[in-house]
Amino acid sequence: MPELPEVEALRGFLDERLAGRVVERVLPLAVSVLKTYDPALTALEGQRAGPVARYGKFLALGIGDLHLVTHLARAGWLRWRDTLPAQPPRPGKGPLALRLVLEGGGGFDLTEAGTQKRLAVYVVRDPQEVAGIARLGPDPLDEGFGRDAFAALLAGERRQIKGVLRDQSVIAGIGNAYSDEILHAARVSPFKLAASFDEEQVTHLYEAVEDTLRAAVERAHGVAAGQLKAEKKSGLRVHGRAGEPCPVCGDTVRSVSFADSSLQYCPTCQTGGKPLADRRLSRLLK
Fold it and tell me: What count of Cα atoms within 13 Å lies in the side-chain half-sphere of residue 40?
């Protein structure tokens, strides 16, 4: 799933290519993709594109007085095309979910692999009309997101820190991959209760959040949309690297599997050398 760094890179990528361009057509090609009906997609046609904004993992394209908002979900992606085929695509064929065509040529496709079909597109007058945006917590890259604000989010949280970091209503934009990376950088078990952090541990975790995300944003800056997935993978130290040596200590990176996801961690760096039980109700092995 694209997370904050990749979506921020897509925002900058689109901003450079869309600003001032006129939308010629918007073609919905998957029944599941469009989540709103008023205003209609056709209201975007003939309108000039403005700035592109990011809200957590959401992209919001300003077009005229409206906003085309999308969430790429787990298997969605945006593919920019300098030249689009003259023949309109056929609905329901392949991964193509939506196409935006610009006057003078070019535009982008939204695609989604697999069968779950969670890619979402909204046309709204205000991005806050999208429920997923309205419920977002603070953005960790905002200037006002300091150490004390972060500490206040953890206070009283009886959940495991991995789940808290991934909760979009607590902090916007962090998903499965970067929560693994943040916890590895902070040398923290993914199952540690958020409320159990002392002052020093809160500081270390906050610094890991900031350093990990800002470094990933910097790596992704200027990377073409089609190369962002590969760039993300190359920069990850533990996520998706089960069985490989930890780049910090050399121990073997382990994995814990759940119903529809998994996490990766280093026992030496994060759990005092103890492996975590790889079962759905995971806990430290006794």
Answer: 5
